[in-house]
Design brief:
alpha+beta, five-stranded mixed barrel, three-stranded antiparallel β-sheet, 6 helices, 8 strands, elongated
């Protein structure tokens, strides 16, 4: 049965085919071979690329499936991601490729990803959508943390003025070392309520999400982030 899908990445395969990393609504992240997709007359030639909402079918029991259907969702056009928004889209795709296990249930994350792309297309501000997807991704990975209580003592953060964030642990009121970034508890409470209108607070949220994801990304740098730095655009991811 056809299901909603988007292409995360593509590679050339043999002379006329492509390998696609798909993010699908029902089967999560799936890798397929699109046979003949590079041929000039292939109906898949213009569709097998990121940021086009698609319907896809595939078959096979191995890790590399065979694509049997690829078509646009009704009359949906390609999401208009340009400049900073395009780099941000590649960043989302790389996060999914790196962190979401293959062929695992991820329907809620898929909907969050699709909504994030639409929000980035429609809004002038990219960062709030990025940060919200990162939070949904942490929840999907079982790595969500508490915004209101000290992860060490269980005491309410509201009893304190300052706190610190420990990746894979949460917020604490006692710093681990002198180099650790301190956050005003009042700001963290606003971030917990997703109050991100203030640019300074939004920047703090970026630091927190980046630290939280670093545990799972490891030492290998994100290629999309390197591309962003090499562009003439300011870094958002």
């Amino acid at each position: 049965m056809a299901q909603r899908a988007l292409v995360l990445h593509r590679w050339d395969y043999q002379e006329t085919s492509l390998i696609l990393d798909l993010f699908t609504e029902n089967d999560g992240r799936v890798r397929v071979v699109a046979k003949g997709a590079k041929r000039p007359k292939s109906p898949w030639r213009g569709l097998a690329q990121p940021f086009i909402p698609l319907l896809a079918e595939f078959q096979g029991r191995s890790e590399l499936k065979t694509l049997t259907l690829l078509e646009p969702q009704q009359t949906t056009e390609r999401l208009q991601l340009q400049g900073e928004k395009l780099y941000s889209g590649f960043y989302l795709n790389e996060l999914i490729q790196r962190l979401v296990p293959a062929e695992g249930e991820a329907s809620e994350l898929f909907q969050s990803y699709l909504s994030t792309l639409h929000n980035m297309t429609a809004s002038e501000r990219v960062e709030p959508a990025l940060r919200q997807f990162e939070w949904h991704l942490l929840q999907h990975l079982g790595a969500a943390f508490d915004w209101y209580y000290d992860a060490d003592s269980g005491q309410a953060l509201s009893n304190y003025d300052w706190c610190y964030f420990i990746p894979d642990h949460g917020f604490v009121t006692q710093a681990r070392d002198a180099q650790q970034r301190a956050y005003l508890v009042a700001d963290i409470e606003k971030l917990a309520a997703w109050d991100v209108d203030d640019e300074s607070r939004l920047r703090q949220l970026k630091y927190i999400m980046r630290d939280a994801l670093s545990v799972y990304l490891g030492d290998k740098p994100l290629r999309s982030r390197e591309l962003f730095r090499g562009s003439h655009l300011s870094e958002r991811s």
